[in-house]
């Protein structure tokens, strides 16, 4: 679809999209103080049909943010506290032996808490890799398989996971394959002084605030389909491909920083997330086409957890965010010929 083919009917639908998105953000902001960039990126991932990983030290409101999002949606919400003794069956469910009416016995599948629309995986890196990996199929396929039988999950299905920084004691780093299933990784920062004052006003006084449900699951799915109709020019799409290719140290488009500090770059799934996120960013900015600035705005959230640093990068405590900053400065905006995503 070219920019000129956006019909008046579609423009009207996209305007309603913006109103619904802002209404959801406003409702969540009644409880959550500040963190506007986090909220925007989290809701962008939600509309894009992706999962979100929130990272930050304890006490910054990560769990409250996810709970408030669930309150603002007409969706089934479940919370799982990940601990070292949590088993996969505690997450997805298991077959139970039950007595039938005729006095016999039969297996019956008992669903676990993963059978919900919004799943809060709280402190996901407190559990062992075996339990973490139990989420893989659910996040990618929206189904779970037990004893050879596949059980579909309800739509929409969103996993919003929180984790403490990996260097803290008693944590297990998430497997790279599971990290790649998250649409974006968001870093929750400490509130500013004026935000702390507002937090105290909302939490230590006699009155409390809460969020009301403003959108349904069906509407979220409709918004996801609408966002995909935003056109993107070929040259802008090639720029997005170049950004992803530049994260691979063995690619000809890699930057000097990438070659020095990165071991593995972002996957094609990261490119898909980059494009989808940019389309939603453009739509929220009342534009009907994707710009390069939209791609740059989404680069850190969707790429930071898909890049693996080499030994030198870890030794010098280089962050993937700084690598992304460098490649944004160095990757040319105009790509003369189409480039291919690595297999």
Number of helices: 15
Instruction: Tell me the CATH topology of the largest domain.
Output: Rossmann fold
Q: In total, how many beta strands?
A: 13
Shape call: globular
In the CATH hierarchy, what is the superfamily of the largest domain?
P-loop containing nucleotide triphosphate hydrolases
**CATH hierarchy: architecture of the largest domain:** 3-Layer(aba) Sandwich
- Poorly predicted tracts of residues: none
Overall pLDDT score = 84
CATH class of the largest domain: Alpha Beta
How many separate domains?
Answer: 2
- What structural class results from the helix and strand content? alpha/beta
Largest sheet: 5 strands, parallel
Q: Strand portion, in percent? A: 15-25%
Which sequence of SSEs, written as H and E, runs from N to C? Answer: HHEHEEHEEEHHEEEHEHEHHHEHHEHH
Q: Between the first and last Cα atoms, what is the distance in angstroms? A: 26 Å
- Radius of gyration from CA coordinates: 21 Å
Helical amount:
40-55%
Task: Please give the order of strands in the largest beta sheet.
Answer: 3-6-9-1-10
């Amino acid at each position: 679809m070219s920019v000129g083919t956006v019909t008046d009917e579609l423009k009207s639908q996209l305007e309603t999209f913006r109103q619904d998105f802002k209404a959801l953000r406003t409702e969540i902001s009644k409880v959550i103080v500040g963190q506007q960039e986090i909220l925007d990126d989290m809701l962008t991932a939600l509309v894009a049909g992706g999962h979100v990983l929130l990272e930050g030290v304890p006490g910054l409101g990560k769990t409250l943010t996810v709970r408030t999002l669930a309150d603002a949606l007409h969706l089934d919400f479940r919370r799982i506290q990940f601990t070292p003794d949590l088993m996969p069956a505690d997450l997805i469910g298991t077959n139970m032996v039950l007595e039938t009416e005729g006095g016999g016995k039969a297996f019956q599948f008992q669903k676990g808490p993963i059978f919900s629309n919004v799943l809060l995986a709280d402190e996901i890196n407190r559990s062992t890799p075996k339990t973490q990996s139990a989420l893989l199929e659910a996040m990618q396929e929206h189904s779970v398989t037990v004893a050879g039988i596949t059980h579909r999950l309800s739509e929409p299905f969103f996993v919003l996971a929180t984790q403490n920084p990996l260097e803290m004691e008693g944590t297990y780093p998430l497997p790279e394959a599971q990290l790649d299933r998250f649409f974006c990784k968001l870093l929750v920062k400490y509130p500013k002084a004026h935000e702390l004052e507002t937090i105290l006003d909302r939490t230590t006084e006699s009155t409390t605030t809460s969020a009301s449900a403003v959108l349904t699951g069906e509407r979220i799915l409709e918004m996801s389909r609408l966002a995909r109709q935003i056109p993107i020019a070929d040259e802008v799409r090639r720029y997005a491909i170049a950004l992803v290719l530049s994260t691979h140290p063995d690619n000809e488009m890699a930057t000097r920083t990438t070659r020095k500090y990165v071991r593995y770059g972002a996957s094609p799934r990261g490119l898909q997330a980059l494009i989808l996120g940019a389309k939603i960013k453009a739509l929220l900015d009342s534009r009907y086409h994707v710009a390069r600035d939209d791609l740059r705005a989404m680069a850190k959230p969707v790429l930071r957890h898909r890049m693996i640093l080499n030994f030198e990068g870890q030794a010098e405590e280089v962050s993937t965010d700084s690598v992304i900053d460098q490649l944004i400065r160095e990757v040319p905006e105009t790509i003369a010929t189409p480039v291919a995503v690595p297999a």
